[in-house]
Amino acid sequence: MPKPPAPGAVRPDLEQVFRASYPRVVAVAAKVLGCQNEAEDVAQEVFLAFGRSSVPAGAAAGWLSVAAAHTALNHIRAGRRRADREEAARDDGLVAPDVADTVVASEDRRRVRAALARLPRRQAVALVLRHSGLSYAEVAAALDLSPGSVGTTIRRAETALREELES
Amino acid sequence: MPHPTDGTLRRLLDEPVGVADVDRAHVAGCPGCLSRLAATQQDAAVASAALQIETAADLDAGWQRLSHAVTAERTRRAVSSAGSGARRRPAGWRMAWRSPIVAVAGVVALLAGAGTAAATNWLQIFHTERIAPVTAPQADLISMPDLSDFGELVVTEPVDVRPVADAAAAAQATGLAVPQVSELPRGVTGEPQYHVSGRVSAVFTFSAEQTARTAAAAGETVPPPPPGLDGSQFRLVAGPGFAAFWSQDRPVPALVVARAGAPTAQSSGVPFDAARDYLLSLPILPENVATQLRGFSADGTTLPLFMSAEKLTSSTADVNGMPATVFASRAGTMAGVVWVDDGTVSAVAGSLSSDEVLSVARNLRW
User: Fold this and answer.
1) pLDDT of residue B212
2) What are the Cα distances from residue B63, in Å, to A43, A54, A63, B57?
3) CATH code, domain carrying A59
4) Kind of pairing, strands B302-308 and B130-136?
5) CA atoms of A135 and B67, how far apart (whole Å)
6) Are the beta carbons of B133 and B325 closer than 8 angstroms?
7) Spatial separation of the C-alpha atoms in residues A74 and A78, rounded to whole Å
8) Candidates A154, A165, A166, partner chain B, best to mutate (most B CBs within 10 A)
9) Domain annotation covers residue A9
10) Which chain B residues are within 8 Å of A79, Cβ to Cβ?
11) What is the C-alpha to C-alpha distance for residues B258 and B337, in angstroms, rounded to an integer?
12) pLDDT in tens, chain A (167 residues)
C-alpha cells in the first residue's frame, strides 16, 4: 500500500511525472481559462498538490488532468483575478496584435469561460478532457462514469455550450 | 431497431470503432439519425473552436518554478513545526481552511456565533453543541469567502497532522476516547491507520479596509461596519483530534472514524450579534448560504456543515440518543454521519451506504 509522504516530504517521482505530464496539464487548464499564463499558475497548484499526495503513479495522468480542469474551473468560479487574467491575455502574445482583434478575442474568451463556469461541473470537466485529447475510456475512468455515458455527457455539454455562446 | 442515443452518435464522431456495428449500420441508412449526427457534429465543432488555444509549455522553467515552490513549502513547514509562536498562515492553510471539516471552523464559526460580549476579556461566543447542514450549489460553496477576505488571520497553533502507531497512541496524543469498531462493514478489512492533530487555533482581526477591498473585487460596495468591529479580534479553536483510516490510499477511504474537539470562537469584546449581522448582510456571501446561516445562527451553538447540493443529500438520524446529521453522495459512492457529544465532534464516513455508516456509529465500543 503506498503511504502518503511524511509531512514536509514530496513524493520521489514528482520530477518524472512532472516532465511527462506538464504540457498536458497546462493545455487542459488553458482550454478552460483561455490563457497560458494562468494555466501555468494552475499547473503549479496541481503539481504541488500531487507532490503531497499518494496517488499511485499509474493513475497520475488521469488524476492530474481532472485536477487541472477542476482547479481551472475553480479559478473562474471564484471570480477572482479576472481583471489580471484579461490583462495577461492581452500581454501574453497569444492573441492577434491588432487592437480590435485583441478586444474581440478576449471578449470571446470571457464568454467561453463564463459558459464553462455555468455548465454542471461534471459536464464541463468531461468536455475539456475530451477536447484535450483524452479517449472515452480515459474520461470514463477519470470521472468515474460508465463508458456508455461519456458520449451523452459530452453531447449535453456541447449543446449547452453552444446555447450559452449563442445567447 | 431503436435509434442510437445522442451519446452513441457523439462517440461515432470521435471513436467510431467504439460504436457497435449495428448502430453504425443503422445511422448510415436512417435520414433522421444522419440529421442528428450532423447537428452533433456542428455542436462539437463549435466547442472545439471555442476551446481552441495553442500552448507552448516551457518544461524546464516550469520545473524550476515547482522546485522552488516545493522547497519554500518545506521550509515553511519546518519553521511552522518548530513551534515559534504566532505566525502568518503557512502554505496550504487556505486550502485546509476550505476543506470540509476545517472550513466549518472559519468564517462559519464567526457567522454562526452569537451572544453579546460586553466584557473586555475573551468571551466565548460560540461553542458547538449540534450540527446542521447548509446545502448550496457547489459553485456557491467554492465562491465562499474565507477569513483572509475580511481581515488578517494569524495561525497560533497550525494544523499538524501526523501518523501514530495505534488507537492507544491516538488516545494518548489527543486525550480523547478512541472507540473500537464492533463489526467492520462488508468489504472493509484489516487494521486502520491512525493520524492525530493537536489543537488548532488562530486569531482573526477584522479589517474594514480588507472587507471593502474584497467587496470591490467582486464589484460590490459595502456599508461601513458597526462601531468597534474594525480591528476587533476573534479567537478560533478546534481540536485536538484523530482519524482512523481503513484503506486510506484509495480516493475515498473505505471507512474513517474520526473525533475532534468541536470548534469554538471567542471575541475580544465586540458585541457579536452586531458583527454577525453585518457580515451576513454583505453582498459577498451567496444569498442562499446567508439565509440558511441566519436561520440558526442566533443560539451560537450550531455548527454549520457545508454540503454541495449537487453532490450530497443530508438527513437526520440519532446515534445512541444524540441527534446526528447523515450525508450521502447522490452517486451513492459514499456516506457519512456526524454528531456532537459534550464538546466533541465525531464522524464515521466511507465508501459505504448511509445504513452502514449509521450501524458502525451506533455500535462503536467505548
Assistant:
1) 86
2) 11, 20, 19, 11
3) 1.20.140
4) parallel
5) 31
6) yes
7) 6
8) A154
9) no
10) 143, 218
11) 11
12) 444 445 456 788 999 999 999 999 999 999 999 888 889 999 999 998 898 888 888 888 888 999 999 889 888 866 544 444 344 444 443 333 344 444 556 677 888 988 998 898 889 999 999 999 999 988 988 888 887 899 999 999 999 999 988 87
Alpha-carbon distance of B246 to B240, in angstroms, equals: 21
Cβ-nearest to A151 among B8, B42, B248: B8
Residue A7 lies in a domain: no
Q: Answer yes or no: is A74 within a domain.
A: yes
The CA distance from B280 to B274, in Å, is 10
Let me know if residue A6 belongs to a domain.
no
- pTM of the entire predicted model: 0.47
Count how many Cα atoms sit within 13 Å of the Cα of residue A153 in the half-sphere of its side chain: 22
Burial of B146 (0-12, 13-18, 19+ CB in 10 A): middle
Cβ within 8 Å of residue B149, ≥6 positions away: B210, B211, B214, B284
Count of domains observed in chain A = 1
The radius of gyration of chain A's CA atoms, rounded to the nearest angstrom, is: 17
CB A152 within 8 A of CB B7: yes
With bands split at pLDDT 50, 70 and 90, how would you rate the model's confidence at B117? very low
Q: What is the pLDDT of residues B134-150, one digit of tens each?
A: 666 666 655 566 667 77
A contacts of B142 (beta carbons < 8 Å): 74, 77-78
CA–CA dist B166, B354 (Å, integer):
27
| ipTM associated with this complex | 0.83
